[in-house]
Amino acid sequence: MHDQVIDAAGTSCPACEPADPLLRVPLPSVADLGTVAEARAAIDGLDAALAVLLERRAEVAALVQRLKPVGGFAGRNPDRERAIVDAMAERAPSLGRDRLARIMNAVIEAGLDAAER
């Protein structure tokens, strides 16, 4: 296993200064996992990081909803959502665009639901 900082290369975020804590996620090599217990431990670590990322994404998406003139489900932007999925498909080609579209649709809908509470 090795630590790698997940980097949003190519993005510009003035609020994301280096002073903000970096999320370090161990990205295990599948070849290094020899047992079910090791693989499950790796999944647990990835899931923990994913939960933090999803929560932060929902917080930022809620802010977007407050800033847009039309928010919530009525304010969904299919072009923006396609661009998100396309960018993710470039980073994770083995998942494929269709799978990523389904995943991101669920993430976006859950985030919108959370923002309405």
UniProtKB/TrEMBL annotation:
Q: Where is the Chorismate mutase domain?
A: 30-117
One Pfam family named in its UniProt record: CM_2
**Superkingdom in the source lineage:** Bacteria
InterPro entries in alphabetical order:
Chorismate_II_sf, CM_dom_sf, CM_II_prokaryot
What does the record give under GO molecular function? chorismate mutase activity
For biological process, the GO terms are:
chorismate metabolic process
Residue ranges annotated as transmembrane are none
Name the chain's protein.
Chorismate mutase
